[in-house]
Amino acid sequence: MSDTKSDVAPRRKGLTRRQKRSLSRGIQYAVFVALVILFAVSADWGRLQNQFAQPEIADRMFPDVITLALKNTVLYTVTGFGVGLALGMVIALMRLSSVGPYRWLAGIYIEIFRGLPALLIFIFIGVAVPLAFPGTEIIGGTYGKVALALGLVAAAYMAETIRAGIQAVPKGQMEAARSLGFSPARAMVSIIIPQAFRIILPPLTNELVLLFKDSSLVLFLGVTLEERELSKFGRDLASQTANSTPILVAGLCYLLITIPLGFVVRRMEAKAQEAVR
């Protein structure tokens, strides 16, 4: 036997897990950049600008798009959110009640209004209610109708959110309040509900963003020129000018509200996570 050792080829090591993740991420970035470049090169920017970005048409929208359309959109959203929050609180407490009929009624309401499209609720408020109750006027006119329609839709979601927040509060909080002489109702109002709202504030703010977009359904109630919101305002001017620039401007106005609200939601969620840690 030869004393010389046979040369053994060194075994090639594979990529580490971190290297694989880096490679996968790099490939994804490359594909994304390639798609963006492909879109930028293949799109007809001239036609897009002609249809969606005419400065002279956009100038015609101001200041009414802010002082009228955006103002009405915010007003519809805030009033609808208020109605939904108040009604959702009542329904959430009914869901937690020890009285069976209260729980059943709350459950039926949530299943119906959470399952129906918001469009049908608006049509019901605008058409079915006047037919069922002739001569009856909802307080606030169009603003009252929108607040009621948005509130009925939002309440179904808010009720479940509020119920989950109340149940997330440790049971010891109620027991401690009762030991201090608080009645169940007073303990719920003074101790449990404030803690629950600190927990559910981010999802409630997110619900506000959703309502802001749902306010565009107001057109199905039949509004006057002074009651138009952003979508209706943009569509009307787009029809008059045979150009889509007003729709783009209306969309940007939505983003003026939804983006800051989205940032607020993320900040709230981050603070809530820090508090839990």
TrEMBL record:
Q: Which residues form the ABC transmembrane type-1 domain?
A: 70-265
Q: Which PROSITE patterns match?
A: ABC_TM1
Keyword vocabulary terms for this entry: Amino-acid transport, Cell membrane, Membrane, Transmembrane, Transmembrane helix, Transport
- Pfam families, alphabetized: BPD_transp_1
Localization (cell): Cell membrane
Has UniProt tagged this entry with the keyword tRNA processing? no
The main location class comes to membrane
Query: Which CDD domains does the entry mention?
Result: TM_PBP2
| Ranges that cross the membrane | 26-43, 74-96, 108-132, 138-159, 180-201, 247-265
Topology term for the membrane = Multi-pass membrane protein
Spell out the family assignment given in the record's similarity comment.
Answer: Belongs to the binding-protein-dependent transport system permease family. HisMQ subfamily.
- What this protein is called in its record is Amino acid ABC transporter permease
Q: Which organism is it from?
A: Streptomyces thermocarboxydovorans
